[in-house]
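agent: user wants the structure for 3-beta hydroxysteroid dehydrogenase/isomerase domain-containing protein from Colocasia esculenta. delegating to structure tool.
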Amino acid sequence: MADGGEVRWCVVTGGRGFAARHLVEMLLRSQQWRVRVADLAPSIKLDPREEEESGGVLGTALRSGGALYVSTDLRDKAQVLQAFQGAEVVFHMAAPDSSINNHQLHYSVNVEGTKNVIDACIECKVKRLIYTSSPSVVFDGIHPLHNVDESMPYPQKFNDSYSETKAEAEKLVIKANGRDGLLTCCIRPSSIFGPGDKLMVPSLVAAARAGKSKFIIGDGNNMYDFTYVENVAHGHICAEKALAAGGNGTKVAGQAYFITNMEPIKFWEFMSRILEGLGYERDIRLLPATVVFPLKCRPSGFRPKQEKPSTMCNYLNDLTFIQTPASRYSGSIRAQPLYAVRRGVRVRETRDLVRETSATLLIVVGQSDKVQSVVQGFHRARGHGVCIVQDSSRRQ
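agent: tool returned. relaying tokens verbatim.
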């Protein structure tokens, strides 16, 4: 609730997704907004940590009226209109799983769904729309991206249907800026990780269990930008504030911005530290991309069902980004990361953090030397959870 007692509603589409959950909680903690969580499921099912009894922010807000869950399929405009009624701001984060190679699904949600979002924003007189795009909208799957900024054009040919449809949706959102007073901008977060991740760490563990963790594809020197999930949420809030500020802040409107932790790291080094922390010793072997790539692209049962051939491109290329154009404006989104990634990954035994598992991935996040990861021992577990330790000292 804003100062003065005014009730202000915002909507987060795809609100039960990985990054969206963090944005919802950050918005609720700010006490500036009531949050409407819009997602596909017919009803909301809270994780134990989200329950009011556990002190969960979302559970408490749902009970008090500070949050509301709305079952919404973006492909149904009537449902979108219902979800957006009375909202001042929409954070459009919904998207299909990028690992699914299904063009029809990506187009129907990313493009047609975004059209419905834009139309509903205008009909419901929403003031600001922030769209969660992807850095992949400027990646062709062939040419490395080394410290590119937002002036990088869309490629003539995209890496996959997910990237192509995200780019088309981004264009729609940018074009919609200024329509009937609607202000829009797009956020491109790179390779998100953090608590609640159900993709990166589980995939690495599955690869390690299958004996595939000892291999590096290519020369292992490609640089990558990863983004801690709290920084992604923070970036969205910064974008909304910049749009709302008026004046120079309106220069943010109709623009797209990369969001990263601003500390590139070798892709395989990052992965190695996670795997080593999980107890999988790595007798590293380099596999030439010219050998592996044709095998991974075979139209046979060799390839995992949901793995796109284009995923291989991410293993081989530099994908690093900077925010040069954003810094030109006094009214830029100013999305300086709240948390830096401490380049250490460990595993510790715990019963409190992960029930019935003996290993929890501990990624230390922060700048202060006070942050320590002390590990006395570990062993492989039936499952792995993720625990992010946040330092109380933030970047200035």
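agent: one observation worth passing along. The longest strand covers residues 341-348.
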